[in-house]
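Field: COMPLEX_INPUT
Field: COMPONENT_COUNT = two
Field: RESIDUE_TOTAL = 675
Field: MODE = joint
Values follow.
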Amino acid sequence: MEYFFALLFSGLTKGAIYALIALGYTMVYGIIGLINFAHGEMYMIGAFTALIVSSVLSIYGLPLPAILLLAGLAAAIWTGAYGYTVERLAYRPLRDASRLAPLISAIGMSIFLQNYVLLAQTPDFVSFPRLVPEFAFLEPYSAIITSSGLMILVVSTLVMATLTLVIKFTRTGKAMRATAQDRKMALLVGINVDRIISLTFVTGSALAAIGGLLIASHNGQINFAIGFIAGIKAFTAAVLGGIGSIPGAVLGSYVLGLTEAFATGYVSSDYEDVFAFSLLVLILIFRPAGLLGKAAAEKV
Amino acid sequence: MVPHAQFFYAGLAALAFTVGAAMCSQASEPIKIGMASSLSGDLAPYGLPPLKAVQLVVKEINDKGGIQGRPVELLVEDDACKPEMATNSATKLVAAGVTAVIGHICSGPTKAALPIYQAAKIVVISPSATSSLLNQDGEYPFFFRTIAADNVQARAQVDFTLQTLKVGKIAVLHDKGDYGKGLAEFAKSLIERSGQAQVVLFEGITPGAVDYSSVIQKIKHLGAEAVLFGGYHPEASKLVSQMRQKRLAIPFVSDDGVKNDTFIKVAGKDAEGVYASGPAEVADNPMAKAYREKFKQTEGTDPGAFFDNGVAAALALTNAIAKAGTTDPEAMARILRTSEVATPFGFIKFDAKGEPVGIGVTLYQATNGQFVQVR
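Field: COMPLEX_OUTPUT
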């Protein structure tokens, strides 16, 4: 039984990691219908920014929670700026092109950003400091859950709740939904569509940066390529949960994380991906729009 | 047709002239040697030191006037330790007309590139590809390496785990790659054959995954007393760190894909106590000392992994070309197999399958931020 709980928590941690990245994917898709393949790179750039800022701050001898907060803030702002720029340069000029064009542009952006960081930073793995403090109350349970794991769980839940509330109840949220439903109509009723889309990208990238900070601090190492596998897995989770749906992304991430953990625990880690992707195929056969996705009827 | 015929004869004359010129310049024409290394990507730390080593040896030879008056020209290709890129590099080197190739660095790319070199009858010496599956049946008569193969390495690891650590239950993990999995399979069969210990877990982990906690819970659940890992340092440092975070303090034994400074830098204090096998320490050998000193003078740092192996590969190859007096692959291969050459590892030669005779494996332990030989 103890083994079961240990696996459960490791699955939840993994799920929460995927959720932090999947939220940005699903948000961008929900509003402009673009699969932003450069999202994994935003996560990577966020982690690098956090590393640089936290190294500088630790020279000044700030306490750990302050470093965590400031590095998170700096990473979110800086990566948000990257998100804005990428949207301006790579996606906005293609907004009225066919659906495939921005997709290719996104893949190109992803390759560009990876190689840019490779050249500007290092091709090697670098050590990332453990920015999440060790919680004393977790010590008796340290064998099954770490403080960084708990932190990721809490933050991803908070982010999901905040995003849902913002999109449901604020004016900006309403504008986002309107943009998602019909861009031209939204423009006609006076919504600055360009600004809303930019805002979506900035928010999505900032979320990815916070994910980058927390996950890097959990793993203790980063390099230019970490965004690739994490991005693919988070994308899978978002599709599983119903891409475009915020609670769906989180649910999909937990389903994926738990499947991987139990597949490893009770079968073999050789088959972890086999189980995860078989599940994806199964769910998509019975619910083509994902677990919580709405099958949108194509308007003629 | 008549005017054309004139052109034809003129062309023929020009051709004859070029051929004649080429034959005259043969004596000073450079000997082209290819170097296929991993110079970018995650595993660049393994590819850069051997390249520097080969460049040092080549420069030395050229300063002395080359091999029989012919300078050595080095053509460098990057395969990023990826099989699909390695076939490109190999094709490019073959097309450039190289006499021999030093490389590749990783086992997977070497495996992918060997058929291309074999078809072109080119001698290949790898300074670091250790997979035992590379030339198991001697199917590549022109393949050699200046590093002990995985079966030798696996034996050293297993002997150490069984006799020095004296554990009864061992978890064997690998990264699903040619190198890591091959090594892990050897270790597993050696442990099982010894009858002294039990392999409680044999599994591959996904490189680059965000979290390895479930496999760590499994290791704990099965009561393993030691972990044997076949693979490279990025996964090893993540595994070790997460094991220590989950308060799993059992010994971690790995391979020469882990025995490097990057592993220690990235894993930090979690690296302490980790065992890794690697080429026998040669710091006492005067030749090794001399080359390391030369490297230090130009680069300002200590050479990294596989530097000595790179020097050995370059020396063995150039020696073979000089002694054979020709760039004929058969003649070079014969010299490599029969005559001993002085290298940083002492005098070495190669057996029928291209395995080095005279290069061994020892175990190291990470102690105070450095890998120190286990006595």
